[in-house]
Write a structure and sequence with these properties.
The chain is mainly alpha-helical. Strands 1-2 form a two-stranded antiparallel ribbon.
Amino acid sequence: MNGWQKAVTGGKGSKSKEVCLFNGDGAACRFGSTVAFFGLLGAIAFLVVEALFQNLSSIKIRRRVVMGDVGFSGVWAALFFFTFAYLSIAWGKSEYPPMGKGINSCRAAIVFSLFSIGTWGGCSWFAYQRWLEGADMTQFSSGFDQGEFGVGGPGGMDGGYGADGGANYAQYTAASDAEPNYNSNPFAAQQQQQQQEMGFQQPSY
């Protein structure tokens, strides 16, 4: 941000130093530059992660990415709101710079801080909506092979037993040894009928 200008101090042997145009408050210039710089890095990082989102193999990592997007965007929306207020108040108290040097940069910093509030706030809102859509795990489990892991998805979604395997497994674990439920031999009736047709009498012992 071009919000600094050189000012000469003292008489003979005077030295020039850079002074922030926002009412001479160097913290205002440094704070605005820091928030904008880390906001840019964060935006680039989330764009890269978004491009690789479908390739993330862990559902926990996908959830953490969305949660991080919600939190980071919300925090930066608040920081840009504070930056906008800070720079606006400081600029309102500032003297007009000589020959208007740097005035456009200062005004642009204030305007873009205002726009950034809405931009980061919107990113946080859309990320939150994405989190709500993924509350039933369909958003976070998309991209996995459903045929391999069953209808519910990988891991512990439905126990890894497929569409009806979970129900069968529950019936199995609920079975009691005291009252076993055995199925009759499906070939017993057919075998008995064949023996009667052949006139074979089962020997008695």
